[in-house]
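Hi F.,

I've been meaning to write this up properly since the lab meeting, where we talked about keeping a consistent format for the predictions we share between groups. The idea is simple: the sequence comes first, exactly as it goes in, then the structure tokens exactly as they come out, then a line or two of notes. No screenshots and no reformatting. I'm using this chain as the first example so we have something concrete to point to.
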Amino acid sequence: MARKPTRRRKQPPKPPLLQRLRGDFLTGLVVVLPVFLTIYLVWVTIGFVDSRVVPLIPSRYNPENVFGRNIFGFGVVVFLTFTTLVGAMTKGFIGRRILTWGEGIVERMPIVRSIYNGIKQIAETIFSQKSNSFQNACLIEYPRRGLWAVAFVSTDTMGEIKAKSGEEELVSVFLPTTPNPTSGFLLFVPRKDLHVLDMSVEEAAKLIISAGLVEPEYPRPPRSSGNGNGGNGNGSQRARRTRG
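Output, unedited:
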């Protein structure tokens, strides 16, 4: 029997040259723009710190007088060294007394007191090294049933709030705003109404800051571990522990 001639599949027509150039340009922009902006912001930040710190250095130690030229980034090194020394001194008895004395003076200034306390609270929240960070990211129905919002599990609610709520298990939840996650709402949510997410707190923060444009991969890719359990299993165990 004679074989039937095989039909060649028609290849789709190539897009026009301008369309291909546009696609190549957008692809390159996605690669180049983050790198360029990162380098630019780092460069501007270092230059800003140098311009503020270097003039405060005594002239005999100024790199322009010592080396005959300015050293880019010298102000950053001085700032980091000075901040580290202040932190080390503050941990000691004398440093704490000086800090307490200075804060006592600030507390007597009405307007300065409010500004200082606000900045101090934000700095302690961002740079605190204590283990008081958020436990998990979660989903809650907010501001009404049927609408969902990403929030962060803070801690179990205790004391008067739990006693007067009538709930057996109540959880303190921080609901951040977009695109500024430093502001938001403190909510007390029954544990049964929480839906713990497998994504990390950092991934949830990126999701909120980007207004939903940067979404973590799901389902989570399996990760090998010593006991043979994948990453999803660990995430499920963590979720079950949080749900109680």
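Notes:
The radius of gyration is 28 Å.
Confidence is low (pLDDT under 50) at residues 225-244.

If this format works for you, I'll send the rest the same way.

G.
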